[in-house]
Structure formats: structure tokens, C-alpha cells
Write a structure and sequence with these properties.
The protein is of the alpha+beta class and about 160 residues long. It contains 5 helices and 4 strands, in the order ααβαββααβ. It has a 4-stranded mixed sheet with strand order 2-3-1-4. α2 runs antiparallel to α4 and α4 crosses α5.
Length: about 160
């Protein structure tokens, strides 16, 4: 049975509780354009991310709600070989799940605090977001799939 909040003190307490719940459930401070980015990513047939293996391992979503089904392969030949990079290929809908996970970890609310992988997640999000923003609709069936490269290799000091 639901009792009405009749006294001003009860109403104030109820309002305060609602505000507290809303503040605590705000899990992220998503950057501008995040929702539009998710919609755009959802429309991609396939996208490839090239990044250090450790960065992928650190930022990939755990099995569960935002699980990402991606094909991961080491780059074994070409100019990027031998540097610990992997090629991660996923669908647009998997990219949406990955972006949600990145956003959650990269942009935590001030009440939740940073996660162990906040810096890594922020690095990937900051590379993926502008790449998605620049994607335009394909003009022909031969247009290549989007490829996002994160390779911050330091040049040898000589």
C-alpha cells in the first residue's frame, strides 16, 4: 500500500532521496556528441581498429552486457609488424558496445571516481570518436571499411 507524502518534511525527504538516486546513477560524464556517435557507429557494416595488444586487452569489455564479438589478429607482416599491434575487426553494433564500455570507463562521474583503465579507455575513446565523426556514407560498394589506427610508437633516440 502506497502512503501519500503529506507533511513538508516528508516531501522534502522524498525529493532529497530522488536527487541522491539520480546523482548516483549518473555513471558517466559523456562527451558532447556521444549519442550521435553511437547512432552513426550502429550503421557501420564493419570497422577495424589497429592498436597495441595491451591497449585492446585493457579496454575490451568483459563478457556480459556490453560484450564485443571481435576478430583479433596480430599484425605479423608489413610496416607495422613486430611492434605488438593487433588488428581488431568488429561490426558497427559491436562498436556501439565497445564505445559504451569506453565511455563508462573513460568518463566516470565525479562520484564514482576513476577506474583502473580510465587512462587507457580515454586514449582509445579519444582516437575512435573523431574517426567516427568523420565517417560519411559509402558512395560505392568498393569504399573501404573505416580503419582507426592507434600507434604511439616512440622513435628511437640516436
Amino acid at each position: 500500500m502506497k502512503l501519500p507524502l503529506t507533511s513538508p518534511v516528508q516531501r522534502l525527504a522524498g525529493a532529497g532521496a530522488m536527487v541522491a538516486v539520480l546523482m548516483l546513477t549518473g555513471c558517466t560524464q559523456s562527451p558532447a556528441g556521444h549519442d550521435e556517435r553511437l547512432s552513426k557507429a550502429a550503421g557501420l557494416a564493419r570497422v577495424t581498429l589497429v592498436c597495441p595488444k595491451g591497449l585492446w586487452e585493457e579496454t575490451k569489455p568483459p563478457k556480459g552486457a556490453n560484450e564485443v564479438k571481435a576478430k583479433v589478429s596480430e599484425i605479423a607482416s608489413g610496416p607495422r609488424s613486430g611492434r605488438g599491434l593487433v588488428r581488431v575487426t568488429m561490426t558497427g553494433t559491436d562498436l556501439v558496445s565497445y564505445l559504451k564500455e569506453l565511455d563508462y570507463n573513460a568518463h566516470p562521474s565525479k562520484w564514482n571516481g576513476e577506474k583502473d583503465n580510465t587512462a587507457a579507455s580515454r586514449r582509445v575513446y579519444d582516437a575512435v570518436a573523431p574517426a567516427i565523426d568523420k565517417i560519411e556514407a559509402a558512395t560505392s560498394p568498393d569504399d573501404p571499411e573505416p580503419q582507426i589506427i592507434i600507434d604511439d610508437t616512440i622513435k628511437d633516440m640516436k
